[in-house]
Amino acid sequence: MVLVAFGVLAVAGCGSGTTAAKKPPPPNATPSTTAPTTVPAPALRVGVVGPLTVKAPSAVVERGPLGRVAGNALVLVSAATVGPQELAAFAEAHPASRFALIGASTKGFRRPNLVGVRFREDQAALLAGSVAGLTARAASPNAPSVAWVGSREPALVRAFVRGVQSTAPGAVVLREWSRDAPLYCKEAAIAAIQGGALVVAAHDGLCAEGAANAAHEQGEAAVAVSSFELPGVAAGLIVKEALAGVHYGGEDLILGAASGAIGVGRLDPAIPPSVVVQAHIAAQQLAVGGGASG
Question: What is the chain's mean pLDDT, rounded?
Fold first, then answer.
């Protein structure tokens, strides 16, 4: 881990030669009440690229394309907008700036002023499974059934199944494997619903969108693992560290529930409000008690 201090180093000026003696103040002189002048430290300038919600009252935030904001002291980039190879090239071209890729690894493109920020996907899948189980149980207490749609991701699916079983013991978990493309995931979700699934789940991106479209057309609910990963929280943590004079580079940071970066994001409107409340409770318990293993 590389720690780099931000800020300005103040150097006190010193003269050479003999120091002149100070003259005593004249009799009956009125003492000066003027406070010494202080110069505030310059605000941290933060560039933001892509769909990131960044709350940083103590920083100056500039949004825009990477080419325009790359000269800021800190640049936060959504992995949904820019890939690691492109960002690494910008990091090389702007060595005085610090870059953070939110939501992806920088493996293979390490730079001393570039850090990747990843999420504990096993924890996000565990929460997604918990919410899927709660939703299915609310729809059918005696026969809850959910489905995983998309590519084969064994570790992620295992965490998802554990989440389902934690809130709906004995629930049926179907697997409808498909390519990670909207049409294929939609077809797989329709097949799962026809097979009895009351909730369909997918990892992220276009596959999750396709599965959700199918669920809504069939009157059912959908969950996405990515809905439990909070990029805005991760970005805020990077800004907070930078304001404290700390920067990470040449590595990946992996953030979990304990940091607040795994929690409840935007959920399907078809999920009952009572389940949403329980989802937040489950996220708090995960943050306190630790996470699932892969």
Answer: 87
